[in-house]
Amino acid sequence: MELKKLGEFGLIEKIARSAGAGFPAVIKGIGDDAAVVRSSKTQCQLLTTDTLIEGIHFERALTTPYLLGKKCIAVNLSDIAAMGGTPVCFVVSLSIPPKTPYEFIHKLYQGMIHRARAFGVSLVGGDTTGSRDHMVITVTVLGTARTDRVIYRHGARAGDRIYVTGFLGDAALGLLLLQRGKALSRIRLLVAKHLDPMPRVAEGNTISRMRLASSMIDISDGLLADLRHILKESQAGAQIWLNHLPLSPQYRQHWQEGADDRYVPALCGGEDYELLFTVPLDKQKRVAALEQACGIPVTCIGEITAKQGALKVLDEQNREVAYGKEGFTHF
Amino acid sequence: MELKKLGEFGLIEKIARSAGAGFPAVIKGIGDDAAVVRSSKTQCQLLTTDTLIEGIHFERALTTPYLLGKKCIAVNLSDIAAMGGTPVCFVVSLSIPPKTPYEFIHKLYQGMIHRARAFGVSLVGGDTTGSRDHMVITVTVLGTARTDRVIYRHGARAGDRIYVTGFLGDAALGLLLLQRGKALSRIRLLVAKHLDPMPRVAEGNTISRMRLASSMIDISDGLLADLRHILKESQAGAQIWLNHLPLSPQYRQHWQEGADDRYVPALCGGEDYELLFTVPLDKQKRVAALEQACGIPVTCIGEITAKQGALKVLDEQNREVAYGKEGFTHF
């Protein structure tokens, strides 16, 4: 069997099974936004890694080395945020073609260091190697959390409401319009969401401290794709209410396709790096306090249902809507 | 300036400078075998990462996926060992061409998981992505240690004796003879040292627990190259006694070049993954107990001198010997 046919998620599952149990320090291994490892009676360490490959995850022509560096860090901080944790430090492994201009590498590291520093996170090590012909950037972030406050993908229960921070679909829409040749000056805010995402670290921390969420994940592959991870781990279903999806003013302005396609980037577009979380009914009244603390919209977009694996998208008339493309798969 | 001209070590230094200080949790950032980050009053976390690139660090034709997996873990465990720490878990980022046979990936992961499990270390996460045309494997290991027992590169003082675990040069010699077409069956033990190195985790732990070493590093780039790191961080010099270098029976049997070249693989060959450490004179008598605890040779090969940066290699008649090639540089 070739890898291509197995697909990314199948591969990860097979590996997770063979990695097996029997390690008492490991609270959560493969299968969440970050691994959770006990480090003392009350504290745990969070570990997450992400790789960006030139020609697959980024093109040098469509970004700057500084923004690329920032993004490498942001996507990893987002994983720590999705556990309710606090990022501490990172290591970076960089494989670079020998002819890469030094200036590029310098700016790339500057972007990483600056984005990290803004969150109190420091570069503590790494490995630089020559690659053959394209750049590969792997960042691993170490974070910390109180063990009893970590939020996993597996805690959602029927009746819980589904929330997201910020707006959905801007990043995907920004990339799409850029690829269609739209003038950058007219879509700057959307493109910024794609090139320079802001990880919701403070928001994840606040959600954890308020003990608000029964489950949480960050939206990297798209709302529906990432919600499916929560549903799978929680053995639950969900319905999403189309007319509740938080769309930014820029999104509404620039995305005037037919009514059917109106919500596609918000439902299926990846790289929003917003937090998607579920809140039990009896804690819902505290969401207003969360929104105030965060200073960004926190929106209820649906609810968890009992029917395992069933994910329904409903329009204003409560009619089910079908969407084919559900996120980005690597193989 | 092109990266090629700057060289790997120059690049790392420039980055270390710009990463800067001001992070109270970070005890040691860039510049040792692993980063050291405070996690409680007495404990710290160790973090290290290493990348192996197909066509640069390995060739599929010269190894098996299972051995390759084992080696990816071993080289990282070796870095934790060199700090005197205990490895806990690892994440792996794998970039694989889409046409890679599933069997290859499966065996690769098996190798990683088995080598890790033998040291009580578990796979807790990772990222698999499609690459364009060759494989890139990045492993990051999280370890732990008592903060007051971590051993750094910077503690060597004039008069300290220099020790190594095990034998030197076998891995480099194994690779060299393999490349020269020597029959595998005749050099199996040497080749095994290259393809399937054994990290000295228990040994590093014992050295740390016995508070024996003033500085330590693992030998990945070659004895002289790695000793230079200790000298630089310790602002010291050293002399190495050629006729004290521990050479394995296989090394002596298969390496009968002219007298001048006799010690080259042992001095300059990389990938031994033995521990190189310095012991203050007053603790020397405890090395015998260490050797007994470890069950492998622990050999005094020289001493630290006061002359900063001066690294002399002396023959039996105490005459200085010059060696040009001092390890492997990536760019």
What labels describe this entry?
homodimer; 331 residues; 60s Ribosomal Protein L30, Chain: A; Phosphoribosyl-aminoimidazole Synthetase, Chain A, domain 2; seven-stranded mixed beta sheet; 11 helices; 25% strand; globular
What does this entry look like structurally?
- The structure is a homodimer of 331-residue chains.
- With 331 residues, chain A is of the alpha+beta class.
- Chain A has 2 domains: 22-149, PurM-like, N-terminal domain (60s Ribosomal Protein L30, Chain: A), CATH 3.30.1330; 161-321, PurM-like C-terminal domain (Phosphoribosyl-aminoimidazole Synthetase, Chain A, domain 2, Alpha-Beta Complex), CATH 3.90.650.10.
- Helices cover 32% and strands 25% of the residues of chain A.
- Chain A has 11 helices and 13 strands.
- Chain A has helices at 3-6, 8-19, 65-81, 102-117, 170-179, 188-195, 201-209, 223-234, 249-254, 264-268, 287-294; strands spanning 26-28, 35-38, 43-53, 86-96, 122-130, 136-146, 161-165, 215-218, 237-241, 275-279, 298-305, 311-314, 320-321.
- In chain A, the strands form 2 sheets. In chain A, strands 8-10-7-11-9-12-13 form a 7-stranded mixed sheet, sandwiched between helices. Chain A has a 6-stranded mixed sheet with strand order 1-2-3-6-4-5, covered by helices on one side.
- The longest helix of chain A has 17 residues, at 65-81.
- At the A-B interface, α1, α2, β3, β4 and α4 of A face α1, α2, β3, β4 and α4 of B.
